[in-house]
Structure formats: structure tokens, C-alpha cells
């Protein structure tokens, strides 16, 4: 709760100078709101699932890394863009589905990684103090499955709201770009994992690998594309302008 309060205060400080009804189109705001959504969902998960709190160590590490990079990008001149996005009703709906989706898949990936660690520990027969604090392998499988089931449904809704937003903005229902391709690929991978689990009982290391792959694709499609456009391309353009000067 203390960690969540700190992140929420940071989010408020980022949004305070923004024009009312707009969204700050910065990489730092993307990472901060994602971290806030992850921690909010994790707190709720701990209240409804008894063993979920055992993921606190991994969730804390993931959140710390996210916030460190957010702080670095906040101070990066290439990322100091003041661009704002007008929050139309469709934009609000899309953001309201995108953030929970990414949080659900993130926690599912953390549970999958915990399952991967537990399975490796069982094979080596050398439990560590850290692995003893994690949920059991069975609990990790249940957690990742339930989170992915909800996440897949919300992701489908997010894809539909994204298409509606694209149609409102451009008049085209679907424009193939990196974000759409990566997000749709994540949807297919997660769906394939859920179908395989239902039909053949897929679990353990193979299921964890698919979950982590889906998380990687969604990360590349959500903050990854933002990183390329805000940091990489901005740095290249800035270097080119300085070189011409």
C-alpha cells in the first residue's frame, strides 16, 4: 500500500501540469501509469487470493525496475515532449481497457516466472529462501491461468475500442502498424495457451514460456513502440539536426 501510494503521488505530479481533458503523451507517463495499474491490481489480487501476496518480491522487483527507467526517461531531454492527447470518449474507453489488460498480463507473467523458478528448484532439489517464499507450483499455475482468462477478455475489448478510436480519428477501421501487429500477436499467443490448457492440460514450463512470450509481445506493442518513437527516433533526429548545425 505504501508503494502504491508513492507511485500514485508520482502519477499525480506528472498529470498536474497537463491540460484538463488531455493525456500526456510521454514514455514516463506510460510507464508510471502502468506501474500504478500493476500495483493497484496486485493489491486487489492479494485481498481476494490468499497466496497472491507471496509474489510480492517479484512484483516489487518488476515495479522498481519500471520506476527506475521511468525516472531515467523523465530526465532524458529526448523524452521531454510536451505533446498531449485529447481524451475523447473513445480514447478514455481505450485507455481504461489498455491499462488493466497490461496489468493483468504483467501479473500473469510474474506468476509464470514464479512457476518457472519453482519448477527449476524442484528439479535441482535445492530450494532457496527466495523460492520458499513464492507460491507453490500449483498456485502459480492457477494464478496465471485466471489472470490470463480475464486479461484475454479485456484485451479483446481493448482491440475493439482501439479499432473504434482509429476509425474516429482516421476513418479507417484497421491500420496495420507495429502496435497493432504486436498486440494482435499477443492476443493469439495467449489465446493459444488458454486453448491448449483446456484441451491438453498444458501447464508448467511450456505454459510459462507462452505466457512470457505473450507478455513480451504486449510490452513491445505498448511501451516498446513508445520507447522507439520517443527515445530512439527523437535521439536520431536530434543528432541529425545537431550534425547539420
TrEMBL record:
GO MF annotations in UniProt: heme binding
Keywords, ordered alphabetically: Membrane, Transmembrane, Transmembrane helix
Glycosyltransferase as UniProt keyword: no
InterPro entries reported for this sequence: Cyt_c_assembly (IPR002541), YpjD/HemX (IPR052372)
Protein name from the UniProt record: Cytochrome c biogenesis protein CcsA
Classification of source organism: Bacteria, Pseudomonadati, Pseudomonadota, Alphaproteobacteria, Rhodospirillales
Residue ranges occupied by any Cytochrome c assembly protein domain in the UniProt entry: 45-231
GO cellular component: plasma membrane
PANTHER family: INNER MEMBRANE PROTEIN YPJD
Entry superkingdom: Bacteria
A biological process term (GO) from this entry: cytochrome complex assembly
Transmembrane segments annotated in the record for this chain: 31-48, 55-75, 95-117, 147-168, 174-195, 207-225
Keyword presence, Cytoplasm: no
